[in-house]
Design goal:
This protein is 37% helix and 16% strand. The protein is α/β, with parallel strands linked by helices.
């Protein structure tokens, strides 16, 4: 009896300690971004991940998982970022093990895979606006947009708009020709930063278009969301076609902003843009058909197509001139199937980006573990610089990693925040 009472008291005390700890938690986004701006990428992630157990029991659970997914993607922990995001309670789970295989066969019958980049480039011949989306925790989606930049510029596209960008840095960014930490929210991720850098290098005018005005009207559930969508659309129109009637624009947005349909209550940016401009954008979705941490989180058609074709590059499905979009034909013009990534330390897509080369990093340069490795372009080096590439070697048993570097630049390296200059 005494043992039972002691156990019960211990459980009550433990529950009390946990409840007090949970009650004292701060918003993980606030903590992580404060730490990011004072101590950098790796400290930002640690600032919230060491409180994981507390956050998972709190009302901040989804915020924590979202922030952790984003910061894991920033430091090159791509698979871990996907794993974290898939645990968010509002993540879509449409996997059904009882899904009829013959329906899948009929659904995609006579449709075959074609390289997404080449096909999209051809499709743009008939469009003046191209909208492509991303999941913010998956940098792989930025690589596809990067692959379109040169070809679209040759076709007359001169404006590149990115949802992440801050208005106050827009003029300086276009003069400076590379982003800094204050340039935008998601653009501190190295692949996103290089997407912007390459657009500027090619000759694009890079513009921000986020709607910044506060909204306090909760009269309807989607009132503020629709206000944001409309503000984005108006900003795009104001900064491009209203000053340059013959403009062609490439827009890199997040998630459903490029949805052309929406519903009775939700009017996405793309739908509103078409309404006020009269210009029909080519909308390219990458979010629906993309890899997750487990098949149970994936679209079953994506899972089956990856099993069938085992593609190593982004693809679309075509039958003659028809592009397969399934039941999303009114939402998007193109559904891109991004390939599965290698489960090794560094994903294969990272080295397929144009002009990139592999540079082996020898862990002999690490004096302690975890070992944080960052590569910076020498000519951009300053306090607010964004790494060109970065990763973490967790322990001395890990194998040597490869950096993904553009051979156009010379680099300085930081190993656990100590600057190294080696070939």
């Amino acid at each position: 009896m005494k043992y039972i009472m002691k156990t019960h008291i211990h459980q009550m005390l433990l529950a009390l300690i946990i409840s007090v700890a949970v009650a004292a938690l701060e918003n993980p986004w606030t903590i992580s971004y404060q730490s990011f701006h004072t101590d950098g990428y790796f400290s930002a992630l640690y600032s919230i991940d060491h409180l994981e157990s507390e956050y998972m029991l709190s009302s901040y659970k989804n915020d924590y998982l979202d922030a952790s997914a984003i910061f894991n993607s920033y430091i090159g922990n791509y698979q871990r970022g996907i794993q974290k995001f898939d645990l968010i309670s509002y993540s879509t789970n449409i996997y059904d093990p009882n899904y009829e295989h013959n329906f899948l066969t009929k659904e995609t019958e006579d449709f075959y895979p074609y390289p997404a980049t080449e096909e999209i480039i051809q499709l743009t011949n008939n469009f003046r606006a191209v909208f492509i989306n991303e999941a913010h925790h998956i940098p792989q989606h930025r690589a596809l947009t990067m692959s379109l930049l040169k070809a679209l510029y040759k076709k007359g596209f001169r404006y590149f708009a990115a949802e992440t960008l801050n208005l106050f840095d827009e003029k300086e960014l276009n003069n400076r020709k590379y982003p800094l930490k204050g340039t935008g929210f998601y653009s501190v991720e190295p692949v996103y930063a290089d997407l912007i850098r390459q657009a500027l290098k090619i000759g694009y005018t890079v513009i921000s278009y986020e709607h910044k005005l506060p909204c306090n009207d909760n009269s309807t559930p989607l009132k503020c969301q629709n206000e944001r969508e409309q503000g984005q659309a108006r900003n795009l129109l104001k900064k491009t076609f209203q000053i340059d009637p013959q403009a062609k624009i490439l827009v890199h947005a997040g998630y459903g902003h490029i949805n052309e349909k929406g519903d009775e209550e939700w009017i996405p940016m793309a739908r509103y843009f078409k309404r006020i401009s009269g210009i029909d954008p080519l909308t390219i979705d990458q979010v629906t058909m993309t890899e997750h941490s487990h098949q149970k989180f994936e679209n079953i058609i994506y899972t089956e197509i990856m099993k069938k074709y085992k593609t190593k590059e982004p693809i679309i499905l075509k039958r003659n001139k028809d592009i397969w979009t399934g039941d999303m034909k009114d939402n998007y013009d193109v559904l891109v199937f991004n390939p599965r990534t290698s489960k090794t330390s560094r994903p294969n897509w990272l080295f397929s980006i144009a002009n990139r080369v592999k540079k082996q990093f020898d862990k002999i340069h690490c004096e302690e573990f975890p070992c944080h490795v960052q590569a910076f372009i020498k000519s951009e080096m300053q306090d607010q610089s964004i790494p060109f590439d970065q990763f973490v070697i967790e322990n001395s048993d890990d194998k040597n990693y490869f950096l993904s570097l553009d051979k156009s630049y010379k680099y300085l390296f930081k190993v656990n925040n100590i600057i190294k200059d080696f070939d």
